[in-house]
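Quick one, probably user error.
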């Protein structure tokens, strides 16, 4: 009999001295005398993985985040033993590991200290659940700044903040509220003009503290699992982001129509209401490519069903909408109604596909249909089954995309808003509780949805959007920032969130334009549209509880502003498509905060508002009411005001006057910006010209235009056109050089070239060294010329 005993609280535990090490291929194992093992793996010269275990052996190595199709390799690896430390050297960095306690430090090859452990790895045994609470702390350098972490409603620079990662349904969240819908445990550190990244690949609830608790210490920890993180060396932030995006993966190219404008509401029904909305867009000549159906299209909120009272013939309706240029997107949630007469429920029950509690009963929770069970998307068989459910929606009815919502997973009327932590998951052969699976549940649902939509949309490309996501979800889906609010503060939040997600590998995102909850004024809606058209995903969405939020719900002025800016987005579609191509090919984020664009300029380190759209357009939204202008920072270099063509010298903060129908937009000097004519939907028009806006610069600038058939997979067989454009400006000369890659033949035959900012009067024009008469190319002095697209060099000479 045991009496008068209590469990000893051990507190934090630490690795002891190294007693042995082994070098096996790309990995080095360090063993301590208290059974801690550190495995250091060199994936690239600038990408190193650090994995710790406290039990003397490693569990199965499995991650949903890592893109297993990526090939890694290093150029140089050397391990040496010194008196007090081991040193691992690559062609980019040196890592020193202390023999006494496994603490490590990382240097560049010039012995500049990039990152250094404070306490380093330590842990606390978890008596309640088993395993460990794993912790890591590192010194912060003077002036060090921190960025990334995905979906955070706070300042761009995270210095002084503590954040939490636990996917949560946060209806009408506020500034600085934690946690939110997405989990991206990746941050970028910047000090002394050197950038590095840390990706903490742990799916348990995690926390990051950026010098809040202690001013010179940054730490991160998890409630379970392993201390398993990747160090990414820059030294440029561009290198860090690209390497991380390669590690966790990139999406496939969406069809061009997905980059158009989308309209959504909770909810558009019945069919007559949907047709009323789509007809009004065409009547007002506001371009729109997609209309969304929220939960009310279903029969009693049962997924994969239709309410035949509201939508008596879905296939006919979807076909008629398509004839008018609208693609139909439908919502699908994870909660499957408990109903013995419901075919989806019966199939899942027969196959034993629902999540279970620890003692065996199915996980049951209330969502829109009432009491529901929930598929375990961490089971490959469940994902395959789920993918097959989309046949009727996609192949038979003709729906073009699927919207996954409530997949944090969200559960109503329970204190923690989600599953109990004892729910069990297959986790692809690594059985676990919901503590480990929670943060990846939404991603695995989106993954299954993506494979289903892709299977039945073929030979067209799929479109999927999800609310909840973990690092790597970008391989399968786009996303948005969740249930925001129609306030000026939320307009500020949306601007930062989408920038932050873009440099966190999850580039294809946007916000609910105008705010989901509550009702915007016409001014707020107009300002949000002006920002939203410069986000990769562009959709108005709102809760019907608070009134109407279509562009015509306000006044004529707001209608005109909406038309103007949505039309501008459609003109810029080839520029946006090129941005996306560079994202999937090279891991370059589509939106770039100013600190990403120029990290050496310390004035960019705390800027929130301004961002670079693509590579050459600077955008600064208006974020307060009654504004007649604003102060903004123009990054270093030369920039043209898009509206006036006035040239500005950057590297300073300036006041910019604006009108209600404008926001500050600038184009980098030397840029060549491609434009299409305004269409009411992608594919509406056949046109014989591509407009190229050429901005003069005394110097050189590279631009590009990517084009293909706008849908389908021929581009993967080389049937694309990638046009590299080199702009060379001199005092009295302008030279434009073209080089085309790919086998796709663009349907237009001419370029309409707008010459902007020329400092001289044109005296002579040569195309491929042949002098051209002005009247043959419709040249208007210092304005534009129309020339055949088959040329290699355009030479413009001034008087």
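Nope, works fine. Designed sequence:
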């Amino acid at each position: 009999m045991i009496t008068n005993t209590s469990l000893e609280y051990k507190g934090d535990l630490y690795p002891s001295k190294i007693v042995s090490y082994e070098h096996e291929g790309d990995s080095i194992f360090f063993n301590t005398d208290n059974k801690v093992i550190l495995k250091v793996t060199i994936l690239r010269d600038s990408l190193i993985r650090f994995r710790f275990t406290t039990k003397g052996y490693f569990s199965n190595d499995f991650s949903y985040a890592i893109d297993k199709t990526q090939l890694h390799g290093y150029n140089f690896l050397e391990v040496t033993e010194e008196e007090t430390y081991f040193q691992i050297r690559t062609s980019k960095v040196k890592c020193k590991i202390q023999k006494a306690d496994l603490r490590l430090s990382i240097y560049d090859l010039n012995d500049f200290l990039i990152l250094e452990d404070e306490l380093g790895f330590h842990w606390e045994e978890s008596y309640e659940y088993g395993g460990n609470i794993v912790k890591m702390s590192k010194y912060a350098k003077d002036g060090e700044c921190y960025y990334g972490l995905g979906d955070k409603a706070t300042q761009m620079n995270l210095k002084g903040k503590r954040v939490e990662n636990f996917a949560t349904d946060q209806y009408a969240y506020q500034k600085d509220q934690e946690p939110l819908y997405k989990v991206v445990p990746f941050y970028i550190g910047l000090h002394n003009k050197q950038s590095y990244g840390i990706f903490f690949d742990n799916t348990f609830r995690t926390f990051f503290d950026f010098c809040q608790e202690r001013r010179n210490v940054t730490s991160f920890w998890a409630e379970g699992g392993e201390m398993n993180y990747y160090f990414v060396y820059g030294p440029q932030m561009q290198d860090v982001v690209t390497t991380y995006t390669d590690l966790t993966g990139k999406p496939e190219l969406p069809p061009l129509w997905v980059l158009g404008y989308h309209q959504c509401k909770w909810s558009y029904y019945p069919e007559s209401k949907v047709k009323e909305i789509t007809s009004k867009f065409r009547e007002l000549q506001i371009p729109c490519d997609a209309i969304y159906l929220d939960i009310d299209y279903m029969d009693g909120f049962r997924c994969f069903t239709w309410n035949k009272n509201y939508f008596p013939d879905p296939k006919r309706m979807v076909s008629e909408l398509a004839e008018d240029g609208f693609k139909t997107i439908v919502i699908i949630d994870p909660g499957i109604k408990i109903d013995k007469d419901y075919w989806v429920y019966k199939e899942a029950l027969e196959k034993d596909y629902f999540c279970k509690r620890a003692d065996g009963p199915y996980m049951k929770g209330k969502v829109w249909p009432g009491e529901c069970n929930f598929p375990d998307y961490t089971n490959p068989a469940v994902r395959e089954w789920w993918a097959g459910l989309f046949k009727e929606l996609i192949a038979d009815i003709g729906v073009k995309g699927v919207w996954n919502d409530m997949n944090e997973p969200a559960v109503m009327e329970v204190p923690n808003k989600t599953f109990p932590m004892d729910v069990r998951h297959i986790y692809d052969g690594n059985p676990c509780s919901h503590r480990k699976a929670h943060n990846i549940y939404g991603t695995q649902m989106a993954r299954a949805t993506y494979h289903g939509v892709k299977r039945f949309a073929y030979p067209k490309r799929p479109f999927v959007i999800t609310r909840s996501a973990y690092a790597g979800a970008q391989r399968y889906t786009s996303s948005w920032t969740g249930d925001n609010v129609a306030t000026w503060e939320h307009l500020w939040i949306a601007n930062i969130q989408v920038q932050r997600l873009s440099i966190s590998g999850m580039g294809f995102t946007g916000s609910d334009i105008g705010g989901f909850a509550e009702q915007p004024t016409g001014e707020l809606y107009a300002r949000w549209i002006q920002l939203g058209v410069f986000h990769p995903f562009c959709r108005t969405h709102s809760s019907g509880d608070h009134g109407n939020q279509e562009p015509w719900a306000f006044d004529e002025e707001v209608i005109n502003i909406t038309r103007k800016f949505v039309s501008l987005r459609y003109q810029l579609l080839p520029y946006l498509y090129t941005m996306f191509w560079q994202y999937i090919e090279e891991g370059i984020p589509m939106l770039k905060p100013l600190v990403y664009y120029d990290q050496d300029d310390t004035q960019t380190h705390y800027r929130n508002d301004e961002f670079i759209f693509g590579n050459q357009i600077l955008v600064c939204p208006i974020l307060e009411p009654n504004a007649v202008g604003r102060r903004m920072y123009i990054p270093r270099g030369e920039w043209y005001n898009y509206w006036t063509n006035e040239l500005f010298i950057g590297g300073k903060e300036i006041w910019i006057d604006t009108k209600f129908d404008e926001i500050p937009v600038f184009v980098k000097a030397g840029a060549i910006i491609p434009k299409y004519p305004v269409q009411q939907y992608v594919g509406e028009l056949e046109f014989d010209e591509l407009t190229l806006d050429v901005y003069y610069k005394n110097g050189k600038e590279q631009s590009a235009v990517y084009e293909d058939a706008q849908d389908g997979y021929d581009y993967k067989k080389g049937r694309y056109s990638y046009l590299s454009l080199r702009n060379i400006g001199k005092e009295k000369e302008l030279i434009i050089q073209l080089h085309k890659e790919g086998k796709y033949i663009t349907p237009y035959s001419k370029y309409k070239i707008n010459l902007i900012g020329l400092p001289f009067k044109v005296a002579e024009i040569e195309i491929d060294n042949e002098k051209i008469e002005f009247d043959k190319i419709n040249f208007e002095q210092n304005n534009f010329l129309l020339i055949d697209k088959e040329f290699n060099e355009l030479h413009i000479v001034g008087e």
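The CA atoms of residues 168 and 180 lie 5 Å apart.
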